Amino acid sequence: MSTNQDEPNTAADVNAAEDATSPEHVAAAPDMGTDLPNAGEPSAKKILIGSQRDEADPKLGTPQPIRGASLEAGNLGAAIQGVANPSAASESGAGVAPTTMEAAVESAVDAELEAALEGLQMDSLLDQQQPAGDLETDEKVRALVTRIHNDNVFFSLKGRYEGIASMRQFKTPPEEGAMLDVVVNGLKEDEGLYEVTIPGSSVSVADWSDLVEGATIEARVTGSNTGGLELSVNSIRAFMPASQIDVVRVENFGDYVNKKVQCIVTEVNEGRKRLVLSRRAILERENQEKKKELLSTLAVGQTLDGIVTKLMDFGAFVDIGGAEGLVHVSKMSWDRVTHPSDVLKAGQQVKVKVEKINAGDGKISLSYRDTLENPWTSIDQKYPMGAVVDGTVSRLAQFGAFVKLEPGVEGLVHISELAHHRVMAVKNVVKQGDGVQVKVLSVDPQAQKIGLSLKATQAKPEKAGTKKDAAEVDAPIREAAVKKRDEPLKGGRDKGSGGEQFGLNW
After folding, report:
1. Is the pLDDT of residue 486 over 70?
2. What share of the chain has pLDDT > 70, as a percent?
3. Dmax over Cα atoms in the chain, in whole Å?
4. pLDDT surpassing 80 at residue 253
5. pLDDT digits (tens, 9 = 90+) for 219-236
């Protein structure tokens, strides 16, 4: 037995401790606000258990002792049962000294915890509770919108971290539960939240120290000049060249005055007070992102709505919602097109069909004529063989003349079908723009060819009596290059060569 005097080691001490828990002692315990007895008084020799607690509820009854046999590991239920049924606990036969219910429960919980942790490695427990690594500044992460409160949007970042962003960064308010890409700006230590921004949103500028090349800011257009726009960024003057206002040429700078625009800082020089901005870089970046999304869903054969953005000699560029495609001049109409402006105009809304997608460079080929009715459909019913139709000579060739029957449909009059007589040159019979009446000789819908005849619509001339009169000439006789002479030619072989005078015999 231990001889330590600080530990109660007699039955009398244990009984005294048990008696201290009785309702009588609890009721007689001094109030928390009263002065405690002096250290020299006899009542201070023993501390009454429960003297520092609130008065016990009389309904609970007097706490009963619990046998030590119920405190073995794994017998927490038996220990509690001993409190509820003291007679059952007494019948267990254990003869150890009783203790209070609180001490019994604590001892039983410790035993259960030790049994649960038995055999587990401490390193593995630490690894399980190790939080995710700290987020780095300018790191782009995928975040979940957890809640929205006033002007703040809260995000759940990776691990146990939370982020916050201003509602002013969003063009349209986000919805709770949406997944968004955010950029980490830094940790707000006083709030324990990471400050995040939406990619492409502007940052607040207080002074020159907040301005760095490549940053996205918001500026207000204060005026314009011949070279571009004048802007203000929180009382800091800035300039935007005309080529950096938009992806297309801007004719009227006044349309931007007194408007707020998002732009990227391209040049910062605090010493020279020089700040150059670009709005075009923002638009190009947005177009690239939209183009990637569009290319992932685009397929050959799709018909899309678009807007004509620019006309060139070789075709027209059409914006199909995030990306631009080219409509070649040969794909603008079923009819022959001289210039794209003959069919389309800038700003016109059109329907186009996707013809080709180049995954390497992202170029998109479009067709406008494929959205129109094909005039060669049922062409053999419109122009049956033997029918006589009206047309216009559209162009001439050495082998014949092309006659336009309707937009997109041309037929060929071969040179042998121009007249009943032999034709030396096509232009001697017809000219471009002439209105003619022709007869359909053949129709090939697959090859999109129609054979026509001009002489078949004309009466055949009567045969002449003599051969000379029957000579058919479709062109005037050209004048001889060397005029005919009636006088004899000069010279001859009867004259000397002129070498005799030199003693030569030719």
Report:
1. yes
2. 66
3. 181
4. yes
5. 899 998 989 999 998 888
| Per-residue burial over 265-298, b = 16 or more CB atoms within 10 Å of its CB, e = otherwise | bbebeeeeeebbbbbbbbbeeebeeebeebeeeb
Q: How far apart are CA 298 and CA 79, in angstroms?
A: 72
CB proximity list for 157: less than 8 A, separation 6 or greater: 135, 141, 143, 163, 182, 184, 194, 196
pLDDT of residue 414: 93
Structure tokens at 219: 């500026």
3-class secondary-structure state, position 275? strand
Domain coverage including residue 272: 225-283
DSSP for 191-210? Answer: TTEEEEE-TT--B---SGGG
What CATH number does the domain containing 316 carry?
2.40.50.140
- Whether residue 383 sits in one domain with residue 363: no
353 Rama sector, left if φ>0, alpha if ψ -120 to 50, beta otherwise: beta
Spatial CB neighbours of 94, under 8 Å, sequence gap ≥ 6: 67, 68, 69, 70
Per-residue b or e along 313-340, where b marks 16 or more CB atoms closer than 10 Å to that residue's CB: eebbbbebebbbbbbbbebbbbbebeeb
Flag whether 109 is in a domain: yes
Pick from 287, 342, 286, 289: nearest CA to 311: 342
482, part of any domain: no
Length reported for the chain: 506
Q: How many structural domains are present in the chain?
A: 5
The confidence band for 349, taking pLDDT boundaries of 50, 70 and 90, is very high
Please tell me the chain's helix, strand, coil percentages from 3-state DSSP, rounded to the nearest 5: 25, 30, 45
β-bridge mates for residue 219, sequence order: 261
